[in-house]
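Handout, page 2. Input:
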Amino acid sequence: MSRTDDLQQRFQAFAGRPGRVAFAPGRINLIGEHTDYSGGFVLPASLALGTWTVAAARDDRKVRVLSEGQHETEVFALDIAPAAATKRWSDYVAGVAWALQQAGCKLRGADLLIASDVPMGSGLSSSAALEVSVAHALLAVAGASLSPLQIARVCQRAENEFVGARCGIMDQFAATHGESGRALMLDCADYSWKSAQLPAKHCWVVANTMVRHALAHGEYNVRRAESEELTAYMHRRIPQRTRLAELSIAETKELMSGLPATLASRLRHIVGENRRVHEAYAALDSGNVALLGQLLFASHGSLRTDYEVSCRELDILVDIAGAVPGVLGARMIGGGFGGCTLTLIEAQHVETLLAQLRLNYVQSTGREPATYICEFGGAGGMLA
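Output:
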């Protein structure tokens, strides 16, 4: 039985009628961490992992949603507003319904069943996969449509203004624009993008620390506030620049000289990471996999030291990977303070890497990491 047929059966048991099936992928971000919300550059690739939403219209103005991952059912009215957010998983669904209507879409009430194989809080963008999948499903049952970019922006607004997480647009954009086997270099300021083929003879391995430190959400918003403070400072000192990603090395040093040490470090990361995105895209485009790996290690060092969003568990996984033959690079991915690392490795050495990650991480932390060899997929949309 196909995944779609299985979901249809489970939806029939839940809602008593057939539904439409939407899918949206998770993503890895090869490089460009904590750059999207300041209008910088990122280099994501969409995964085969993702979130499915099965939907059928209701005759009233309510949305009833069953999350198989949470083993819970929630009901909310379509006229819900951000003030009614509950700080629970259902806010992502309600937020998308709210944001779609804010964008002018006339929605119908719906029954929704949600299933996902993207680990929550892992840095693989489970929230954006959920949002984009739900958006496609709600649009389909309402007979409405938006462009991929409009869907991405609606879902980002849902997360920013309803959920309260001040994310950039990278995750939602990857879920709506992904190309199988290719990475997208996205300019988060104007949404222009181009793609490059991923290495054919190498694998990308995600390792989950199995921890999510409590300060992650709050510290993410702190970093975004620091980024906005740096942008305002730049506008005062170098008004011809519109965003931090445009700063030259000389301009960066000039700005750092007038900043407190913490903000100077944040600026060094943001400017350096944007530069690494361009270098990584060029490395992909030219097939220079060795350089790509070096940039991954450099990115992790900057995230650990300058942006201070790593943690002991992430550093341990990166160090373990760095000692394995055939590994070209590794770094933390996602917001930080737990979640996952990403390792680029020659395909013939993957099993050695997996074994070393399990053995040494257990010895160091008492936990066994979940690991995933990345398989890449395309953009989200309706499957049935």
